[in-house]
Amino acid sequence: MADPNRTKYLRIALLLVGLIFIIGIYPLTIFWPSGWAWHTGGHSDYLQMILGIYATLGVFLVVASRNPLANLSLIWFTVWSSVVHGAIMAAQSVANPEHLGHLWGDVTALFLVAVILAILTPRGAHAKDF
């Protein structure tokens, strides 16, 4: 993929991921709890915490979408934290059969975010050319 197109698609991906992190995760916990909500049945301090963290990251990703190359460390943080978070949740899903639905929900989503951003983010000399 040509670098100008890569940057264009990276901007779009950052905007979409950011918006999903801000407004998309909570509805997913309501409509598909077995794939997105780790604690069901009422109030969850954990859910409030994770929604706050991801909404905050989402705001920064939306801002980064304006100039991705000035925000490479944030993008790579998103990539690697998504891989680590997804790997931990995958292990927990396998260890606790009641959470297997997460392998198809939030675990897959985190790995998808990591792969898309990693593929689109320029590295090395290509990142300096912009």
Describe this structure in words.
- By secondary structure, the protein is mainly α.
- The protein is built from six helices and no strands.
- The protein has helices at residues 3-31, 33-36, 45-64, 72-95, 106-120, 125-128.
- Helix 1 (3-31) packs antiparallel against helix 3, helix 1 (3-31) runs antiparallel to helix 5 (106-120) and helix 4 (72-95) packs antiparallel against helix 5 (106-120).
- The chain is globular, with a radius of gyration of 16 Å.
- The mean pLDDT is 91.
Number of DSSP helices? 6
Q: Name the average pLDDT.
A: 91
Shape: globular
What does the largest sheet look like?
Answer: none
Strand tally? 0
The Cα radius of gyration reads 16 Å
Give the amount of beta strand, in percent.
under 5%
The helicity comes to: over 70%
The N- to C-terminal Cα distance equals: 15 Å
Order of helices and strands: HHHHHH
Point out poorly predicted stretches. none
Structural class: mainly alpha
How is the secondary structure organized here?
Blueprint: H1 3-31, H2 33-36, H3 45-64, H4 72-95, H5 106-120, H6 125-128
Helix pairs in contact: 1-3, 1-5, 4-5
Please describe the structure with a list of short key phrases separated by commas or semicolons.
130 residues, mainly alpha, 74% helix, globular
Summarize the entry for a quick read.
With 130 residues, the chain is mainly α. It contains 6 helices and no strands.
